[in-house]
Structure formats: C-alpha cells, structure tokens
Amino acid sequence: MHAWYADVHALTLALVRIPSLTNSAGESDFAAKLADLLAAWPYFQRQPTQLRRLSTLNDLHQRENLFALVRGATPQTIVLAGHYDVVSIENYGALQPWAYDPEALLPRLIAELEQHAQPADAQALADLKSGDFLPGRGALDMKSGLAAGLAVLRHAALQAEPLRYNLLFVATPDEEQASHGMRSSVQQLPLLAAEWGLALVAAINLDSGVDVGDGGQGQTVFMGSVGKLLPAVYVVGRETHAGAPFTGVNATLMAAAITQRIECNVALTDTVAGETSPPPVCLKQIDLKNYYDVTTPTAAWCYYNLLSHGRSASAALQLFANEVRAAMAETLAMLRERASQYSAHIGRSVTLPEMKPLLLTFAQLYEQAQQRNATAVAIALAAVQQAFATDPTIDLPLYSSKVFAALWQCSGLTGPAAIVGFASVHYPAAHVGATTAGERQLRQVIERQAVAVARDFNTPVTLHPFFPGISDMSFLGGNLPAADAALVNANTPTRPVVAEGGLPITSLNLPAVNIGPWGRDYHRRAERVYMPYSFTVVPELIWRIVNDL
Predict the structure, then answer these.
(1) Which of 131-145, 239-253, 343-357, 427-441 has the highest mean pLDDT?
(2) How far, in Å, are 257, 403, 407 from residue 321 at the CA level?
(3) How far apart are CA 465 and CA 482, in angstroms?
(4) Are residues 239 and 221 in the same domain?
(5) Percent of the chain having pLDDT more than 70?
(6) 174: left (phi over 0), alpha (psi -120 to 50) or beta
(7) Is the C or the N end of the chain the one with fewer CB within 10 Å?
(8) Alpha carbons 532 and 519: distance in angstroms, whole number
(9) Tell me, what's the pLDDT at 501?
(10) Strands 430-431 and 358-361
(11) Which ranges of 306-464 does DSSP label H, i.e. alpha helix?
C-alpha cells in the first residue's frame, strides 16, 4: 500500500495556489503552469513529447487542455480526467487575499467563524478546527481530485515495470459554465490517441462529492452521471392595451401557466437503476418588454432545469412541448371563461378573438425564418453573436433568448405562439451498466476493489448509480445516440457561438465513472476537502482499479 497523503496534499496546495477563475486570465494560464510542474518530473524530462497542451476549440478566452501520458505495456488506455477552473472568490469577503492559499486561509477562516458565529456555521467551524479539512477555493472542487489523479500518474511513472494500461491524464477548463474544455477534448482525444497509438477503454472522472454527515455518502464511486437539459420556451402573446384586456393575450400569463405545469412535475422525472431524478424547476422567467407603457408584454422567456438518468433528449423535448401546448390551451380557455364572466358583469358581450396558438421547435423556427429571408437572418444572428463576444454580462441562456427573438422577428409569424428548444449546453446522462464487455469488466473490478479498500482502510466505500450534479462525465461516457445528438444540436441556439460548428454535443461513449474527494460547501466561503479519505483512500482506490483491469 503506497503512502499517498503527503504527495496529494502537496499537489493540492500547489494547484489551489494557481488562481483559475472561469473565463479569467488565470484560467487561461493554468495549463501552462501545470505543464511546467509536470515537466520537472524525471519521466517527462525523458519523454517530453508525452506532455501536450492543446488550445480549446473556437474559444473566446484562449484556454488550453493539458494531456499527460504515462505509457503502459499495451495500447489500452485509461483516461484520468478533471477540470481546473473554479468559481468566484467574492463570497470570501475580507478573506479574499487568502482564498487561494489554504494554509494561510485556515486560521483566518477559523477566527472569522468564531468571531461571527452563526448556527449554520457550527459544522464548518468544527470541521476546520478538527484538522481533517483543508479550506480554499478549488480545494474541494476539484483540485484535490486532480491532485489524486496526478499522484497516481506519478506513481505509475516511477514503476520499474510499466503498468498493463496507459494512463492519460486530462485537465480541462470551463466545467463550471459550459464544459468548453471537455467538449474540445472530446474532439481532440481521438486524434491524439491515433497519434500516440492508444486505444481508449475507460475513463475515471475525478470530481468531488459532498457529504454533510460522516462521509458515508461522499465516499462513493459514482457509476454514472445525471444528465441535464435546459429546455426553454420563447412565448409570444398578442399585445393589447390594458384598457381592453380581452382583445389579446398577455405573454406573461402564458409563461406563468407553462411554469405552473413544469415546476416540480413528477411526470417529468426519470428513473433508472432504481434511482429517480429530481423534478424540474424554473430557473428563469421574464417578460422581454424593456420600457413602460400600458400595452401588455408581447414576449416572455423561460427556461427550466430538467435532469435525467437515461431519458433521450428527444423524449424530454416532446414531454416538455406537450406541457407547453397544454398550458397555452388552458390559458386561452381561462381567458374565454373570464371574458364570459366579465360580459355578464357589465351587461354587454365581450369575447376573446378566435386564436389558434402555434407551437414550434427552435429548429422549425430557424427553417421558417431562413425560408422567408435568409439575408435578414444572417444579419440578425451576426449582431447577436457580436454582442455576445463583446459583452461579458451575456450568458448562454441570455444569448439563446436573443437568438429566439431575432429569428421570431425574421419569421413573419404572429402569436400567440411558443417556441421550444434548449437554452444552453446539453449534458447527456452517463451510466456504466452491463451492456458491453468493457462496462461489465469495469463494474466487476470496481466492486471488487471498493470492498477491498473499505476493508483495508476500515472506512466505507459505496457505489451509487449517478453522480448527482452535472459533470464532464457526460462527454466522456454519455449515451447520446446520433439521432439525439442531431436533435440537440439543431435546437440549441448556443451551438454557433460556443462552437462555430466545431463543438457539437457529442460523447466519447467510454465506460466512465467518478472517483473523487469529498468535503462540504463547495462554491461557498467554507469550501473544504476532507483530507483523510481524499488524500489517501481515493488515490489508493484508483491505483488498485487501474492495476486490476
């Protein structure tokens, strides 16, 4: 049994101390600094060509993926993967100068928690004073995971005899926003594998888990990752003066009806391997009127968090569209009933104009607009893309809303209508079952080694079907059939901006699992990693698995 702790601890400190906020200059510089660290290893001094930095594709922020290969005795290759970007340090307040320095942060964070003690901070204070937890931005999410993978890579490089499998370490940017790094890596890895003579057979993602208890839930091998869609709807009403409300239909009313049908709708959950995804929730609902007058809003924009464990994107979009269609019909029926009630109240007839609501997908709207005026579409989309490139406040869902609106203006269509599509990147669900020989072998090895490591370290190590948050596993091992990929790409407005056609949503479709550290409060000021498990058990488990395959 190797003594991992000191190596993983030192690597974690070194990585955390390199600031790498998503979309920052620090993130753009990180791969070069990590490459310098690895280039000092004797192995890569002897084999410098097996350390490679590749620019992420069509990237406004000019970031890089890092690939580091330690060769084994066969072409078969296991990928060890993780992201190096981190979220903002603003929530550290006065402690921001030490957010990237765990050892300097620890006593200061303890002192602040003691001085401004709140009941909600009791667990964080006890954890930090125990000596078992290391704080710092990225210490948990996910630089300690990268450190564990690097420690395994270095140990493999020091062996007198090569392992049977090659180990290919991959560090990527931008997991926190759009997984631009991993989606670029998916395009680059097959080419790199061909150049280096590798056969990619499995992937271990190194992302972190959270456990508010004793670690029983955090000390877990996740055999898959939840899938995420961000279904969106651009709602178009028929504007009317507030003094004559029954001569049109308010877009905000239809949007509210749609959200009421979608929010926490159990029929939209998905169950695989005995585990059910959380129901969907609305993440944004706004009208798109940016001035005051007494006319009802013409358009509204909504998008929803929809998680899945295996449901196809096409099935999810169809279920979503069905709810939207029903909501529009209910809205018009309600307005007709209220017009009738108002008529009885005032003693004269008031009727809602005959309106048949239109439901289209984004792909259908794009086709309609192109057929009507392709030149106008090109001009409108170029303006939106230019705004996105120059305005950092425009995120991907906001960009999507602007594309929906531009295409609607070019289409010549009239409301009431709803256009459904996806507001941001699709994360396919991933799950290692027993479909292929590779999946069966990986599952058997993990089950065997998890039991052995739990026994040898006298600590629980469990298996769960799905990593509960979105992760880059979706692009390593996601199940995305060609028809689903085509539907997602055709109905995701962000694809032209994020990819310029070069980064479609796709997956390597490898058997992929997540083995990583655990801790508490990631993305928060008290983010901290539990060191006894994360710095010792995690690398030992990974090492045993890669030697047992």
Answers:
(1) 131-145
(2) 13, 19, 19
(3) 24
(4) no
(5) 98
(6) left
(7) N
(8) 11
(9) 41
(10) unpaired
(11) 313-346, 362-390, 396-411, 437-457
Strand partners, 302: 233, 285
- Give the domain CATH number at 132: 3.40.630.10
Cα–Cα–Cα angle for 93, 98, 103, rounded to 5 degrees? 135
Q: Which residues contact 426 (CB under 8 A, 6 or more apart)?
A: 227, 228, 229, 230, 313, 488, 492, 505
Q: Tell me, what's the pLDDT at 537?
A: 98
pLDDT tens digits, 507-516: 899 999 999 9
Cβ–Cβ under 8 Å, residues 480 and 428: yes
Q: What is the pLDDT of residue 495?
A: 62
In terms of domains, do 256 and 324 share one?
yes
Q: Other CB atoms closer than 10 Å to residue 267's CB: what's the count?
A: 9
Residue 60, number of CB atoms within 10 A of its CB: 14
| C-alpha 426: how far from chain center | 8
Q: For the residues of 391-419, what is the DSSP string, one character each?
A: -TT--HHHHHHHHHHHHHHHH---SSEEE
Helix 313-346 crosses helix 482-490 at what angle (to 10 degrees)?
Answer: 40
Task: Give the strand order in the sheet containing 209-210.
Answer: 133-135, 528-530, 518-520, 209-210
529, 139 contact by CB (below 8 A): yes
DSSP at 535: I
Domain that holds residue 157: 5-226+428-548
If asked whether residues 197 and 53 sit together in one domain, one would say yes
- Are the C-beta atoms of residues 387 and 394 closer than 8 Å to each other? yes
Residue type, 164: R
> In the block, which residue shows the tokens 């765990």?
102
Instruction: Give the burial string for 381-403 (b: 16+ CB within 10 Å, else e).
Output: beebbeebeeeeebebbbbbbbb
* Residue 46 pLDDT greater than 60, yes or no: yes
The amino acid at residue 249 is V
**Residues 336, 243 share a domain:** yes
pLDDT of residue 549: 92
Q: Within 13 Å, how many C-alpha atoms sit on residue 459's CB side?
A: 17
Q: From CA 505, how far away is CA 537, in angstroms rounded?
A: 34
- Judge whether 212 and 123 are in contact, CB under 8 Å: yes
Distance CA 147, CA 130 (A): 22
Q: CA 95, CA 474: separation in Å to the nearest integer?
A: 35
Give tens-digit pLDDT for 94-149. 999 999 999 999 999 999 999 887 888 899 999 999 999 999 999 999 999 999 99
CATH number (domain holding residue 411): 3.30.70.360
Beta bridge partners, 199, equal: 76
